[in-house]
Write a structure and sequence with these properties.
This protein is mainly β. The protein is built from two helices and eight strands. It is globular, with a radius of gyration of 16 Å.
Length: 148
């Protein structure tokens, strides 16, 4: 049997049409902040992103919001979004459970040049919910491997 090629999902295909993702897990981080781990509904598909990028997350029947990706770029079919419940859409996202569906458009935005930082001094400034995208594995690996 021939191996099935994975279709790489990106906004380049049609950035105006959301791709369907399913909630794999939900973790309550604080009283108003949660992390959703999502995966493509089509298991043959692959979704790639880089540290620092974001998705447009669509909650069906409610609306769409931009949310930074806070997961591991090496895990192609597992995307994490850490979100604070502050508006109608993010509050609806906060009520999602395992198995619920979302629309995802992206990834969008510039990525952080993590590979170009090797051997350089860097300063990372983040606070509050802005810390979420700093959790990406490439950036954490860079930070942990620095000499102090």
């Amino acid at each position: 049997m021939e191996p099935v090629e994975k279709e790489v999902l990106t906004a380049v295909q049609n950035p105006m049409l959301p791709l369907i993702f399913q909630v794999r897990s939900r973790k309550q981080e604080t009283n108003d902040t949660f992390t959703l781990e999502i995966e493509p509904l089509d298991s043959k598909s692959e979704f790639k992103f880089l540290p620092g990028q974001f998705n447009m997350v669509y909650v069906f029947g409610v609306g769409e919001v931009p949310i930074s990706i806070s997961g591991d770029p090496s895990k192609k079919n597992r995307i994490m979004h850490t979100t604070r419940m502050v508006g109608i859409v993010t509050k609806a996202m906060g009520k999602l459970k395992k198995g619920d569906l979302l629309g995802i458009r992206g990834p969008f935005g510039s990525s952080w040049p993590v590979d170009k930082c090797s051997g350089c001094d860097i300063v990372i400034v983040a606070g509050g919910i802005g810390l979420a995208p700093v959790k990406t594995s490439d950036l954490l690996h860079f930070i942990k491997s620095r000499e102090i």
